[in-house]
């Protein structure tokens, strides 16, 4: 069964959006070429990593791992999304199982997110959502819907984000024989999302109401609160930033996950609003260096292209 501590850790993975796509989504032992390419990516040698994937594709053009890997590297290079998505489409077309196809579609959604494209990103998240519906996996339905919401709120499409967050909340709660801690998980996620949406819409009172509701959920469960402590200052910092209180935003965001490229962008924006351009640039450079392929990395890449 899904233990409480595991539930908390999964919440962490969602709110930090740390579902990393920097590894090709194939099951089983990774092939040597993939390990080699990923090592090059970690070293910042993106052209060399791309060459490794392309070399593999010369002899195995239908390799899902090589096609997905090439797509990821092209997204990380910036400004090459159209080219990346040709590889992701090949990964989708060559997928040997429905699960592998869904993984490739999810990576395609992230590729659109790297261009700040909510509409197309959500279209591919919808395909993944439908896959998990087909196998009656309510938890993963909720995860994917929330991920679509995250892509869209980051892209500035608040109405579409709100729709997906609602779908995610409702789907997650439909899990058969759901346990109370899992109910708390989905309710915390939803209050977190509603607070951010309200903040983006300039509704301070509504945002504060949902921040308080999120805190109340954490306060009910000391273990959950311990696991989630890093995500609450992310929320309060986010809300403060969009309320125009940049000093409070900076104070709170510096208590959040300092390795999250989205948080790094918000810290950079806070410094910029406070007039410290050098510190802002420092954080933008950190964010731009991420090698993940997930919503925080997607936002960091398309946002920082305008800044550095």
Identify the notable features of this structure and list them briefly.
308 residues; mainly alpha; Serine Threonine Protein Phosphatase 5, Tetratricopeptide repeat; 3 domains; 17 helices; 75% helix; globular; disordered N terminus
Structure write-up:
- α2 runs antiparallel to α3, α9 (158-173) runs antiparallel to α10 (180-200) and α10 (180-200) runs parallel beside α13 (231-242).
- The chain has three domains: 1-96, Serine Threonine Protein Phosphatase 5, Tetratricopeptide repeat, CATH 1.25.40; 116-228, Alpha Horseshoe (Serine Threonine Protein Phosphatase 5, Tetratricopeptide repeat), CATH 1.25.40; 230-308, Serine Threonine Protein Phosphatase 5, Tetratricopeptide repeat (Alpha Horseshoe).
- It is an all-alpha fold.
- The chain has helices at 4-15, 32-42, 46-59, 64-77, 81-94, 98-113, 118-134, 138-155, 158-173, 180-200, 204-219, 222-228, 231-242, 246-253, 261-273, 277-288, 295-304.
- Residues 1-27 have low confidence and may be disordered.
Please state roughly what percent of the residues sit in beta strands, choosing from under 5%, 5-15%, 15-25%, 25-35%, 35-45% or over 45%: under 5%
* Helix/strand structural class: mainly alpha
Could you name the CATH topology of the largest domain? Serine Threonine Protein Phosphatase 5, Tetratricopeptide repeat
One letter per element, helices H and strands E, the order comes to HHHHHHHHHHHHHHHHH
**Strand element count:** 0
Mean pLDDT across residues? 90
Radius of gyration: 19 Å
Q: Sketch the major β-sheet.
A: none
Query: What fraction, in percent, of the residue positions are helical?
Result: over 70%
Reading off the top of the CATH hierarchy, the class of the largest domain is best stated as: Mainly Alpha
Q: How many domains, as an integer?
A: 3
Please name the CATH architecture of the largest domain: Alpha Horseshoe
